[in-house]
Amino acid sequence: MADRVIYATYDDDHTLLEGAKKLVADGVHITDVFSPFPIHGIDPVIGVKHTRLGIVAMMFAVTGLMLAVIGFRYFMIADWPMNIGGKPNFSLLQNYPAFVPVTFEFTVLFAAHGMALTYLLRNKTLPGMPADNPYPRNTDDRFTMEIRLSDNHGMSSDDLHAKIKKTGIVEIEEKDYVVIK
Amino acid sequence: MEYQISSKAKRTIFATIGLGLVLFIIGAIMESGSEQFKTKILSNFLIDGFFFFAIALGSLFFLALQYATETGWSVAIKRIVEGVASYVVVGIGILIALFAVLTFMEGGYTDVDGHHLGHIYQWMDPEVVAHDPIIAAKAPFLTVPFFWIATLVYFTVYFLFYRGFRKRSLQEDIEGGTKIHMKNFAKGALFLVLFGYFSSTSSWHWLMSIDAHWFSTLFGWYTFGGMWCTSMTVIMLLIIYLKKNGYLEFVNDSHIHDVGKWIFATSFLWSYLFFSQYMLYWYADIPEEVIYYVQRIDQYSPVYWGMFMINFIIPMVVLMSREAKRSPGILMFVCLVIILGHWTDVYMLVTPGTMGEHGCIGLIEIGLFMTFAGVFTFYVLNTLTKAPLMPKNHPYLDESKHHEI
Questions:
Q1: Could you read off the pLDDT of A121-138 as tens digits, one per residue?
Q2: Which of B60, B104, B373, B377 is the most exposed place for a label (fewest CB within 10 A)?
Q3: What ipTM was assigned to the predicted interfaces of this complex?
Q4: Domains recognised in chain A with CATH numbers
């Protein structure tokens, strides 16, 4: 049987947050929330884990740092040593202060770009990819909760409808769950 | 009213002061025969006098910054920032006394066979200035009258602003409304402008002039970076201490996380300025400029690089993760290490210029540091007892209570 999903739409982020708290206290599992901007404090309520983007940033940063060191060691020390301002050009360590800005720039460049690309890829929101918000006005002024029936085994569709309707929604809709991408 | 210094804390503080004094006196007796004795004592008073004054001043700056930017989250820790800033009063007293002694001693030199050696401020000694065209050319900036006028202006401004902020903060508890808030906003902005100039020029007068021939344009920012970082660590230590003892119920993980971020960021600010200054002199390699670093690296290599590593690597590696910035145990360790690191930084600003190759961290240094630390802690805690730890009626109080990141 295809999974059914309920989309409950609100016109205020605060109402949604309060509603989510009430529903979770009632034992409802909320799969996701769609909003035009980050809603403060919603993550712990619906049980979203803390982002691991920081770890990705660290990995990219270390990659950038190592590439920088390998690069300038080859260019400036091994392959073609140049005398710049009378600085020792035969030793990476003694010449290192000159390379600190480059090291820094590479680290930041890799961390920033790597993080942004990873974020877009992981969210499947690269330019041109189809949008997966269930309600077009989620990018404007509507806030939508996604509640899958397969996540709430103990409750029937009617139960869920009754509970959700108590939380100040403006619209509710149940349909087959379709994976957009 | 609300917070009382526990008898255990009092015992610890007085024991620290007592032990520090004993160590200082033993050290002083052991050293008293040496030619560097006078210089050593005066250097140490300058190091500790400035270091602890700078913590209070950094805190005052942070308070003004919060007012000028109308920051909401920091309201819950405002009284602690004020408490740390209150030490400016004592710090000013100690520094004025020290500067008066130095002026009276014409720079604090020791007469060795008719030669004036071991000055704290060479330029205060007419004998030296008469034979030194470089220092003579720095008049009127490096002259005693200019030094005193400028110093008194800095101190007056710092003192008046501290008193004003504190007075209005207590007044706000009673009156409420937004009038006081808007006044704090304007005064905070004004303080930032004045502090922007004074933090640079005062560090030139008080610290950079020890190496009177040498100059660096970003020296002021460098000392400022260090002072800001130390202030944030002291504020953090107080928050952790008070929370552990059951106070500050509205200060949550997010506030601690935010102060942790400040420690992380200001450590980077300091390291960035350290390196910016270092790299320019290293690259240009002009003898009269690079001598400042040559001396420190030749004579104090382990202390100098050790200090840089502690102040840069430890906060960077340990405080990078989100969990570390929320864990009191890790934060306490990092804060204590950073405080020692930044004390060593101030030690490195003063000692090579005054003591030459004879400086070393011994009983005098440790003893005087402990004494100052004890007095500082007692004074700050004593200020905290005088007002409720949670401000009332601040317009952003509610926002701060529900701070969540």
A1: 998 888 888 888 888 888
A2: B104
A3: 0.80
A4: 4-49+134-176 (3.30.70), 53-122 (no CATH)
